Amino acid sequence: MTAEIAILNRAAIALAADSAVTLAADLKVYKTANKIFPLSLDPPIVIMFYGAGSLGSIPWETVVQEYKRTHSSPGFATVEESGADFIGFLPDMTEHISSRIQLEFVRTEIIWELEQLSRFAQANLASHVRTQPSTPSENLDYFLAQVREGVRARLNFLAELGPMDGLTDRVATRQFESALRNWELLGTRVDDWNGLLDLWFSQLPELMMHGVGYLTADIRQNLRAMAILSLRTADWSPDSTGVVVAGFGSEELFPSLTHWIVDQVMESVVKSRQLDCVRIDDDQPSAILPFAQQYEVARTLIDGIHPEFLDAHHDIVLRLLCLLSDTISEKIMNTVPGPMSTELVHFISTLPAEMLRTIPDALEMMIGHYSLPLLEVIGGLPKEHLGEMAETLVSLASFKEKFTPGADVVGGPIDVAVISRSDGLVWAKHKQYFEHEFGSTQTRWKQ
Q1: Across 15-24, 159-168, 425-434, which has the greatest mean pLDDT?
Q2: Which of 15, 204, 276, 289 has the fewest CB atoms within 10 Å distance of its CB?
Q3: 78: enclosing H helix or E strand
């Protein structure tokens, strides 16, 4: 896991990142990783990574060095152009990524989709059982209904994102079927999709006592469609990397930042998608942007509420509104005769969704009132204090992780880079520099 943050105002942009990295091979956490790298000296632009530490088997540091070696900087007008150029370079590296490694990515993504769907259905079933105790058979029906709903929602979401150019349904299906052959999973060999589903769902308590025969043909077919569409789409998975490119373009008076996802490689196609682009201007004089798995620590401090509480609040309110709607509808059906009752029940059934639409706007307004004073202060901070604030926010994430049960997967030295038009890139803190060598912890990077 990783904690990273970017803070921008008109004077500069500060980036901070911890040094923890978890190696999948032995699940050990090492706290010496570099996650921020210079991309260009003139104009000053840096790149920051979180998530998977490599493109295929190639460390991101190597990718950056190869990019700089083979691409003379044309002095990009904007940071967004610089980020797009780096992402556009990544396909040049795929010749160094073996087909075996690419096949492993396909398998990881298939399992990831099944894991996320299973957690969704299990969480909803657990919530349902707490409020409406029912028989094992009824629980099974509810679980399967949640599986169907989860698949439907996921297919719609992936369709909205859209597939990558070059990854047709035929290409993804070919990779999907190749991944299923001779696959050793959970100590068992599987050779086809039904075998994989039977093995996967037989491990879940919800189906263990009933048998996987309850997975109907339509569920199996839709799960297959979901997995194949996921292979064609750039979305988060255990092998994904977040890429943040930040600084000043040659024609940008104020700093900007562009944010991408790189969802590894399939059929030598790099699955990537731009997530965001933030520019400081008169309308947005400052910004605080947390990244990676520990973003909620910074968001809680900035917004005054944990992001998961917002999601829980939405679910609780929706459940209460639906329960109220059902209760009123039942009362109407028992007391109001004729067609009027049908019309009233239909009208009441639409109210929860209508009422829920107003809640996010109200919460957004409350959060804005809470965070606005902080953003106004940041807008006028000298660049030296931007770095201090960025380091503090990453330190808070590291502190929380240190005293949270489980592996300490955030921490180590914090690298802090401050980029401005006047000074270029200045390392406010960097673990490769030592005070006894340089006489100061503040060292400007030179190409």
Answers
A1: 159-168
A2: 276
A3: none
Beta pairing class for 36-40 and 21-22: unpaired
**365 or 176: whose pLDDT is higher?**
176
Above 80 in pLDDT, residue 295?
A: no
Strand-pairing partners, residue 247, are: 45, 256
Mean pLDDT (the chain) is: 86
For CA atoms 112, 52, 8, 428, the dihedral sign is positive
Contacts for 353 with CB less than 8 Å, ≥ 6 apart: none
Mark 84-101 as b/e (b = at least 16 C-beta within 10 Å): bbbbebbeebbeebeeeb
Report the phi/psi class of residue 182: left, alpha or beta, with left for phi > 0 and alpha for psi in -120 to 50: left
The amino acid at 160: E
* 83-128 pLDDT, tens digit each: 999 999 999 999 999 999 999 999 999 999 999 999 999 998 988 8
Closest to 96 in 3D by CA, of 131, 66, 129, 138: 66
CB atoms within 10 A of CB 173: 14
Indicate the pairing of strand 36-40 with strand 45-51: antiparallel
Lowest mean pLDDT among 190-199, 286-295, 404-413: 404-413
pLDDT band at 208 (very low <50, low <70, confident <90, very high): confident
pLDDT in the model for residue 436:
34
Structure letter (DSSP) for residue 254: S
Which residues does 123 contact at the CB level (< 8 Å), separation at least 6? none
